[in-house]
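Example for tutorial group B:
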């Protein structure tokens, strides 16, 4: 078969696969877009059903909105930084370990994801409260005289969010590090590169795509966190998701709540585009290198 015949056969297979996947694509697309379009339409309507830009004016002129956006960004960035600090060494250790040991360790790391987020959040509430296990243990050892404020604040919220997101960060980073050719690492070592230099100049650059994917998952996912800040924040940590819920439950203002939802969606889209651009830039640099 000549090249033109192979090309036609390839196109025929692509159209066949697209036709088979078509119903699922339409179903998922409608299910995903219909709520977004409904929220978008509600953000331009008054309670009487009239078109208006007042909802956006009300939301953008409110100091509470900008405060919630600031808290949201701070929580997401802090969670991402801690996940990077903890997740990169953990992924490196897993990638360097024996396959059997790494698989068993991965099961332990992924175990929290098999438990409801609500159960895990209340578990942290029990551990971090003033009479919780951590404070009582530290007090019994004489480390502290007064209970530490570990819950109903930013610290407790951050602990709960890192606990939830760390496994999701480790998975793509570990997969990227596991795929690195061991000969490349051994070649760097044979040329005189020490452990830290080998990590900085070989392992981290070659696993940059996994780190970018993990960072995107962590940052974008945490932008919409609700349960963890609501429980561990104790009403003192109010990201935009909690602001949306209170706008609905307290004022029944669907227009303003929808406008806040659109702002959160735009924030997610901007963050996603930035991470995709960074990942492509890192990939281009690795390709040229």
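The residue assignment follows.
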């Amino acid at each position: 078969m000549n090249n033109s015949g192979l090309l036609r056969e390839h196109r025929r297979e692509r159209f066949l696969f697209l036709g088979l996947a078509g119903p699922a694509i339409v179903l998922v697309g409608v299910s995903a877009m219909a709520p977004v379009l409904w929220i978008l339409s509600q953000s331009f309507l008054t309670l009487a059903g009239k078109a208006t830009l007042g909802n956006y004016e009300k939301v953008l002129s409110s100091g509470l909105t900008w405060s919630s956006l600031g808290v949201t960004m701070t929580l997401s960035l802090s969670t991402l930084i801690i996940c990077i600090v903890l997740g990169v060494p953990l992924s490196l250790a897993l990638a360097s370990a024996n396959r059997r040991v790494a698989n068993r360790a991965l099961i332990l790391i992924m175990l929290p994801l098999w438990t409801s987020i609500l159960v895990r959040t209340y578990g942290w509430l029990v551990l971090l409260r003033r009479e919780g296990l951590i404070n009582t243990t530290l007090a019994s050892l004489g480390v502290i005289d007064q209970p530490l404020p570990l819950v109903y604040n930013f610290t407790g919220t951050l602990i709960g969010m890192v606990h939830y997101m760390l496994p999701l960060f480790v998975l793509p980073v570990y997969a990227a590090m596991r795929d690195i050719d061991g000969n490349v690492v051994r070649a760097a070592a044979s040329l005189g590169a020490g452990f830290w230099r080998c990590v900085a100049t070989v392992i981290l650059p070659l696993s940059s795509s996994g780190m970018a994917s993990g960072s995107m998952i962590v940052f974008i996912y945490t932008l919409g966190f609700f349960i963890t800040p609501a429980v561990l924040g104790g009403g003192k940590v109010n990201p935009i998701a909690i602001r949306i819920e209170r706008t609905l439950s307290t004022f029944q203002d669907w227009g303003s709540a929808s406008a806040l939802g659109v702002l959160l969606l735009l924030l997610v889209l901007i963050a996603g585009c930035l991470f995709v651009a960074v990942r492509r830039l890192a990939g281009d640099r690795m390709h040229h290198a």
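The two ends are 38 Å apart (CA to CA). Compare this with the pattern of hydrophobic and polar residues in the output above.
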